[in-house]
Predict the structure of 3-hexulose-6-phosphate synthase-related protein.
Amino acid sequence: MRLQVALDITDIRKAIQLTKDLCKVGLEVVEVGTPLIKTYGLSSVSAVKVACPKAEVVADLKTADVGALEARLAWEFGADWATVMGATNIETIEEFVKEGRGLGLKSIVDLIGVQNPEARAREILEVARPDMFVVHLGIDVQKRTGLTFENLLDIAAIIKGLGVGVGVAGGISEREIELILKRGINVDVVIVGRAIVNDASPQLRYVNLSKALKEGIRKSL
């Protein structure tokens, strides 16, 4: 179970500095968020990769079409992982995953906005096997509906049972990490954005969250 930091911001200087700072305290996976890519293009992926070469970099493209092309572009700009929308055409997902696998780029299907994530994951697995599905509670949905992080964990557990990697995202902090550990759900990646990026001391917050995650795993063994 790894901690992934999502840079869902539009300030490239802040993103690079945050990556450098977090790199010093053990950053393993960093996500170049969709807002950053939309503002600065895929060169932002390269910049973040240079800022912490030892960390794996996720290009959160949220691809909706031309799957093979966007997978190739992510790889060319230095991404280790890239995302495709689970709600898009099945053909696009298939092309994205296939191209990524041929290049050595790992593929993530983001299930944000999908009404029945379990059914969609099963449908996708019939034609393509991505490296990971991310069960994602979007910011707008968190603000306006009654959906909770607990709901996400139920879905994540089911998808993990399909024999594929799974990540969780959506307003995660210490409380949500505690819930993951308490439920004993073996997610592969826990994605944290605002709780670290907007903290007064991102390094300390990252260390504390990472410590809580790792210590919780050890206790469960």
About this structure: DSSP finds eleven helices and eight strands in the chain. The longest strand covers residues 56-63. The beta strands are 2-7, 29-32, 56-63, 81-85, 106-110, 132-136, 165-169, 189-192. Residues 20 and 51 are 5 Å apart (CA to CA).
